[in-house]
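Lab notebook: predicted structure, single chain.

Context: the supervisor wants predicted structures on file for every construct in the current expression panel, including those that have not yet been purified. This is the next one on the list. No modifications to the sequence; it matches the entry in the shared construct table.
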Amino acid sequence: MKILKAEFIRSCASQEQFPTGTTPEIAFVGRSNVGKSSLINSLLQRKGLAKVSRTPGKTRTVNLFAVATDDPLLSSFVLADLPGYGYAKVSKAERAQWAPLIEAYLSRGEQVCAVVLLVESRVLSPHDSQTIDWLRSIGCDPLVVATKVDKLKHSERVSALRRLQEELGLTGSQAFMVYSSVTGEGRERLWNDLRERCRT
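Prediction complete. Output recorded below exactly as produced.
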């Protein structure tokens, strides 16, 4: 798949700023510092499009990007980078504002055609399984992607991924995929899955 366009639209701090058109939307969600921005840049093959930070909680709004490709099955869509849940170096009051914003964005019906949930392949958080349960409770069946697999040694990869799958309770068709923003591993499979969910 060739990316023809990938550009920032706007940051949404309230529901009134959410898209109102019919263009399909793909949302990316995950705990703080899981590697959402790096994966988005890798997936869209753009450096610096989504801002990468070593500080957890850098993304504090719903950031929207317009994407166009040469694939007739997924020719155009809006990509949404949602605030990270869990630990973040901001006040509890500010973090408490994110949950309603995220839920309001994801609860907009068929306009959000796919939700990608990122979990780190090396370190699971209790928030990860809670988020899977929550997404399903509001009608979202997330694509679960294990990030930073390049940081796993070859000898520990199989056991680490098996543990992740067991702890998240993912089996069969619910199994996750792996992704490395460094090597590009998993990029083609993720595009294939998104294409199936968001045919335009």
